[in-house]
Amino acid sequence: MNRNYTVLDGAMGTQLAMRLGPGADAQEAALCNPDVIVQIHREYIEAGAQIVYTATCDTNRFNTGRYPIEETMPAAVRLAKEAGRDKGIPVALDIGSTGKLIGPYGDISRNRAYEAFAELVRAGRGADIIAVETIFDLKELRVAVLAAMEHSDLPVYGTMTFTDAGRSITGCTLQCFALTAQSLGVQALGLNCSVGPAGMNNMIGVLAGWTDLPIICKPNAGMPDPETKKFNVGAKEFADLCARAAESGATLLGGCCGTDPGCIAELSERLRSTRFGRPRAADTSRLICSDSRAADAGAGEFTRAFSSAAAAEALRRRDYAALAETAVSLEGDALIFDIDLLDSPEEAETLIEEIQCIVNTPAIFASEDESMLSSALRAYTGRAGVMTSAGSASGAVRKYGAVII
Fold it and tell me: What is the pTM of this model?
């Protein structure tokens, strides 16, 4: 038996819809139909799942329905634990997207999103792992992962959903996702939902080139028929295609929308004879990135963002939109932001968020003030570079996985 992999479970939502009817709600089921959820978990475990995810992917304060999170989250953890208790199956607290765009021009602020995720982590105590998944925006992934790590000591997994083009719907690249997630300290990263296993295979290979971490692969069972709602990839085909993802570098494999215990049983059996592959990942120790562009901090050309007369005037007026406009026109592999010229850590956060709305050039923050540096790195979406005399002794540099220039 090949033991280089871990089998994850499959879909919960589509299984609930089959058993409780269209529109079945996992939050309601956790309280009103708990036996159904336990049965689904047990069927996945019997099929070979070695980790089960709680039925909470859609649970958050923006989608609570009739039942409070303080009741539904603990119930979901308890049911997953009950299902796997005899076999000692670990339970992953499933935290999904808020469904909101985060930022100055989005639906909610970064702080509000953080509190929403922190609330889920606190309410879901008792799990063994925290799995942040089905995220389409790198900013939201960072916020969710930080909330998980700052409110729990559990290992954190992070998966995003990408299109067949190899980008998320907000433009995040696979490379920037890998660089950012691993810089935060996740235990595993990967892909789930959006596409079927055929579309995910090549993307797994790309991810494997940018990280040494375990890679998660949880594709859909293809696409649903518009009329019948039945997904178009059967269990055997699903397993065969996932095995190719394992050959490309995936080590934690399961299913998302449309998959069922039959898919997981076929996958578990197929992986027994799969030859796992793992290309050597590139050296990423000097790479910095935004959500869609990366640069080598050891060999790039850098431009100071506040050096022009227009930028200096915009900075004097604290016109962040104008500062962002001047940054768009600057050339270079990365932009250096002298954030000590700002008045406060809060101002640094505001500036970084404003600039990242329209500028995708990777950032380097120059500062001798630890609080300014910490605020800038916390607000930044991606993996930033840092110029500071504190070097690796900086707590902010260590916490956010920044690159010392």
Answer: 0.96
Q: Which of these three, 245, 271, 297, is where a domain ends?
A: 271
> Is the same domain home to 21 and 117?
yes
Q: Is residue 282 part of a domain?
A: no
CA distances, 313 to each of 6, 83, 351 (Å): 56, 63, 15
| 102 in the same domain as 33 | yes
- Residue 227 covered by a domain: yes
pLDDT in tens, 76-92: 999 999 999 999 999 99
Same-domain status, 196 and 334: no
The reply to whether 296 and 238 lie within a common domain is no
264-313 residue pLDDT tens: 999 999 999 998 888 889 999 999 999 999 999 999 899 999 999 999 99
Strands lying side by side in the sheet with 385-387? 302-304, 334-338, 363-366, 385-387, 403-404
Tell the burial category of 250 from Cβ atoms under 10 Å away from its Cβ (0-12, 13-18, 19+). buried
* 75, amino acid identity: A
* Cβ-based neighbour number of residue 399 at 10 Å: 17
364 within a domain of the structure (yes/no): yes
Inter-residue contact 320 to 358 (CB < 8 Å): no
Residue 358 domain boundaries: 287-404
Write b or e for each residue in 28-67: b if 16 or more Cβ atoms lie within 10 A of its Cβ, otherwise e. ebbeebbebbbebbbbbbebbbbbbbbbbbbbbeeeeeeb
Count: domains in the chain: 2
